[in-house]
Amino acid sequence: MTNAERSPEKTHYICQTYVETKAGRNGQTSLKIAKQFEYSTASEAQNRAEREALSEDCAGADAYMVSEDPNSGEVGEPSFLVRLGNVPEFDDF
Which of 48, 64, 75, 89 would give a disulfide with 15, using CB separation of 3.0 to 4.6 Å? Predict the structure, then answer.
């Protein structure tokens, strides 16, 4: 067995922020990803999301983790650590 075959899943800890945008003439509001940061621990991602959510121009922020299979590059579904403010529904994610 080679090292590549033994590679454990890699976990990514992400903080993602959102801003509100108005689309079209009807002025319907939608969310758009503004910033995305990756951290080495869950607490770092969560702390950043909490700080970003306090920002005046931030509609909302998520901190989540995803697992990646380094062999296939496949990424699993997010597991949310915290969701603050106006964030998209999970199905929209």
Answer: 48
| Mean pLDDT score, 31-52 | 97
**Residue 79 in contact with residue 68, Cβ under 8 Å?**
no
Task: Determine the Cα–Cα distance for residues 7 and 18; give it in Å rounded to an integer.
Answer: 33
The β-bridge partners of 27 are none
Q: pLDDT-derived band of residue 23, with 50, 70 and 90 as boundaries? A: confident
> What amino acid occupies position 67?
S
Q: Give the residue, 75 or 23, on which the prediction is more confident.
A: 75
Buried b or exposed e, range 80-91, using 16+ CB within 10 angstroms? ebbbbbebbeee
Q: Print burial letters for 25-34: b (CB count within 10 Å at least 16), e (below 16).
A: eeeeeebeeb
